[in-house]
Amino acid sequence: ISFNAIDAALSSLKNCQSYINSGMDVATQVALDLVESFNDEEDVNNMEKVMLEYATMDRELNHYIKAYAEIINQVKREKPENLPDLENLAQEKFLEMESKNSDSDLQGNEKYMYFKDQLKEMRKQYHGNDTIEEIDEDIAVTRSQMNFICPITQMTMKRPVRNKVCGHSYEEDAILEMIQTQKQKKKSVRCPKMGCSHVDVKGSDLVPDEALKRVIDSQNKQ
């Protein structure tokens, strides 16, 4: 039995996932633009709906790919004399997976989680200092600028990344170099932010802190 055509089709479907990922990246950037320009909250909520639609498509595509892969592997293992109807078998498997769908699947989508995280940070940066500014504008500016400093280089960050575990941000090159150096010594990396108790910083836990980068860039322009 030749599965080349099916393998090629599955490969094409996987390429579709990259388009979904790109769409989610664009939607995230647009939402951050809206918060930065103090647009109506309804517009931001609409972008969140777009993200959930993308997450739904991503889940459906994953199930479809997984269903076909499982059926093909099963046929390859069993090597039946007569080739079964792969399309029907895969469709049954796909529907079985889809029947177990829940909202938590979408909430757990990595791109959607990043969207929510960055949106929260963006709102905090742009709307979170209102009370402080009423008390003392200088204190507010000083506190904000302190968040711009990398705890490793002690310089203003240019490409900040945020640790998903403890929430602290660092200059990308500096934290990756620290992780690499400690890895060679077979040691884990403690979060360099003073007072943080997180003792195992991993490269896989770091995500670009787009919200913080925008605020730093805006401050630098001023």
UniProtKB/TrEMBL annotation:
Stored Pfam families: zf-Nse (PF11789)
Keyword Zinc-finger: yes
GO cellular component, one term: nucleus
Signal sequence range: none
SMART domains: Ubox
Assigned keywords, A-Z: Ligase, Metal-binding, Nucleus, Transferase, Ubl conjugation pathway, Zinc, Zinc-finger
Biological process per Gene Ontology, one example term: protein ubiquitination
Pathway: Protein modification; protein sumoylation
Residue ranges of every copy of the SP-RING-type domain listed in the record: 135-221
Record-level Gene Ontology MF annotations: ligase activity; SUMO ligase activity; ubiquitin-protein transferase activity; zinc ion binding
Compartments, record wording: Nucleus
UniProt family annotation: Belongs to the NSE2 family.
Protein name: E3 SUMO-protein ligase NSE2
Organism: Ptilorrhoa leucosticta
Gene of this entry: Nsmce2
